[in-house]
Design goal:
Blueprint: H1 23-33, E1 39-45, E2 49-51, H2 62-76, E3 83-88, E4 91-94, H3 98-107, E5 111-117, E6 126-129, H4 137-140
Parallel strand pairs: 2-4, 3-5
Antiparallel strand pairs: 1-5, 1-6, 3-4
Length: 144
């Protein structure tokens, strides 16, 4: 691996690597961080996980493919990432972990470990825990 120093002004954002913003996910995350929305933990069946941005395809970009491959390799080693999702009817919407979702679609695990913003009402999830103590929510979102 080669490390190259560059100026911040030289960095460019590739919009094809950025999904649409999900206002509902942002609203729920803010509520969770303010202890206004309960957060639970459960194993969610992969077949119930849906992306918010149906047009976002990180698998079609070389950088996205590389990231997906890295997560597939982690899953092969039984190293899983916890996703932060929210329920929409019987579905669980993924708005922030597309790379992990695409890796799962390749690796095909039966369940995803998920933090769920809002009380889930689906009998297909397993090992439901919570609600999580509000003082631990910042760690769930990686801001502590």
């Amino acid at each position: 691996m080669k490390i190259v120093q560059m100026n911040v002004s030289d960095l460019k954002i590739d919009l094809s690597l950025q999904p649409k913003t999900d206002p509902e996910w942002l609203r729920l995350a803010e509520g969770a961080l303010k202890a206004q929305v309960s957060v639970y933990f459960a194993r969610v069946p992969l077949i119930l996980c849906v992306p918010f941005d149906l047009d976002y395809r990180p698998d079609l970009h070389p950088v996205g493919k590389q990231a997906i491959r890295a997560f597939v390799e982690m899953a092969d080693r039984q190293e899983f990432q916890n996703l932060v999702v929210y329920p929409r009817g019987k579905w669980f919407v993924i708005s922030d972990h597309y790379i992990e979702l695409f890796a799962a679609l390749e690796a095909k695990p039966d369940f995803f470990p998920c933090f769920i913003m809002g009380k889930p009402e689906n009998s297909m999830i397993q090992d439901l825990q919570g609600p999580i103590d509000p003082k631990d929510i910042r760690r769930v979102f990686g801001v502590e």
